[in-house]
Amino acid sequence: MAYDNNNVFAKILRGEIPCNKVYEDDHTLAFHDIAPQAPVHVLVIPKGAYLSMDDFTARAGDAEIAALFRAVSTVAKMVGVSEDGWRLLSNIGANGGQEVPHLHVHIFGGKRLGRMVPKE
């Protein structure tokens, strides 16, 4: 999957599509998912044009990498899921279920989430 400058997150970053912003700093943006899968469902994205975590960790600078992970923790606290627990998920590539070709991590919380992958 190649980076598409017209993907929905690139458009949000350019201000072409609105979002319900939770947090923003120089390197990241966090906003509520438009189709939440849990009572709390927030996306955190880097502002740079990175396809996936693999791409991000290979090309991003240390400040961008630190900012993304600090933003995730900050947002989890801001939306009130830190105390009871939450899930962090990033889908990568076709087999991982990635739908938007821009690195994004999901913060899920607000209820007991259950198993991600069934026991065999």
Main beta sheet strand tally, sense and closure: 5 strands, antiparallel
Q: Please give the radius of gyration in angstroms.
A: 14 Å
- The CATH architecture comes to 2-Layer Sandwich
Q: Distance between the terminal alpha carbons, to the nearest Å? A: 31 Å
Quickly count the domains.
1
CATH superfamily: HIT-like
* Total E-strand runs: 5
Per CATH, the class reads Alpha Beta
Mean pLDDT score: 95
Anisotropy-based shape: globular
Number of helices: 4
Describe this structure in words.
- There is one protein chain.
- This protein starts with 7 loop residues before the first helix and ends in an 11-residue tail after the last strand.
- Strand 2 (28-32) and strand 3 (40-46) form a beta hairpin.
- It has a five-stranded antiparallel β-sheet, covered by helices on one side.
- The longest helix has 17 residues, at 62-78.
- It has one domain (8-109): HIT family, subunit A (2-Layer Sandwich), CATH 3.30.428.
- The protein has four helices and five strands.
- The protein has helices spanning 8-13, 53-59, 62-78, 93-96; strands at residues 21-24, 28-32, 40-46, 86-89, 105-109.
- By secondary structure, it is an alpha+beta fold.
Tell me briefly what this model is.
Residues 8-118 form the HIT domain. This protein is α+β, with helices and mostly antiparallel strands and 120 residues long.
Which helices and strands occur, and which strands form pairs?
Blueprint: H1 8-13, E1 21-24, E2 28-32, E3 40-46, H2 53-59, H3 62-78, E4 86-89, H4 93-96, E5 105-109
Antiparallel strand pairs: 1-2, 2-3, 3-5, 4-5
